[in-house]
Design a protein that fits this description.
By secondary structure, the protein is mainly beta. The protein has one domain: Hypothetical Protein Pfu-838710-001 (Beta Barrel). Helix content is 10%, strand content 46%. It has two helices and nine strands; from the N terminus they run βββββαββββα. The chain has an eight-stranded antiparallel beta barrel with strand order 1-5-4-3-2-6-7-8. The longest helix is centred in the middle third of the chain and has 10 residues.
């Protein structure tokens, strides 16, 4: 079984950008979101994937991912997924022997920037960069599946 152990944080400032790669554009949408799992279609640059992730709250979740044809993903995003789609650029930032994924959202979630780190186990320690802000791992508002139903632009 595939397990993802991930922690999610807000950012204090833009100083992470000095360490970031050029970034990759992502478009993703959700076909199904139930109390048990979400089914997501994602275009990441020139590649497409279908992803199934357990709906459990917290840093440890089941995750399964499969490559699919780009044309199929585009059709699913345009015709089958809930709207609005998640539109973001993901930057990879290497810091203290860990790779961070910094997502800069656009569209209905413009203004939201979140950093994620994937860990080998829940108790794994890591050095926190100075640009790291509050942890939001346990806050469901920051899950991409939630951002479709309640985009950042409508938060008060």
């Amino acid at each position: 079984m595939a397990i993802e152990i991930e922690r999610k944080f807000l950012l204090k400032d833009d100083s992470w950008r000095a360490l970031a790669d050029a970034g990759t554009h992502f478009m993703q949408g959700y076909l199904v979101g139930s109390k048990h799992a979400s089914v997501r279609v994602r275009i990441e640059g020139e590649h497409a994937r279908l992803n199934i992730k357990s709906a459990t709250l917290g840093m440890r979740r089941q995750e399964f991912e499969y490559a699919i044809p780009l044309a199929d993903a585009q059709a699913m995003l345009n015709e089958l997924c809930e709207q609005p789609l998640i539109d973001k650029v993901r930057y990879l930032v290497n810091y203290a022997n860990h790779q961070w994924e910094v997502d800069v959202f656009a569209g209905d979630n413009a203004g939201l920037i979140v950093a994620e780190i994937e860990l080998q186990h829940e108790a794994e320690s890591f050095e926190r960069p100075l640009w790291l802000g509050a942890e939001v791992t346990d806050d469901p508002r920051y899950y991409n599946v939630s951002l479709v139903k309640h985009p950042f632009k409508v938060w008060s």
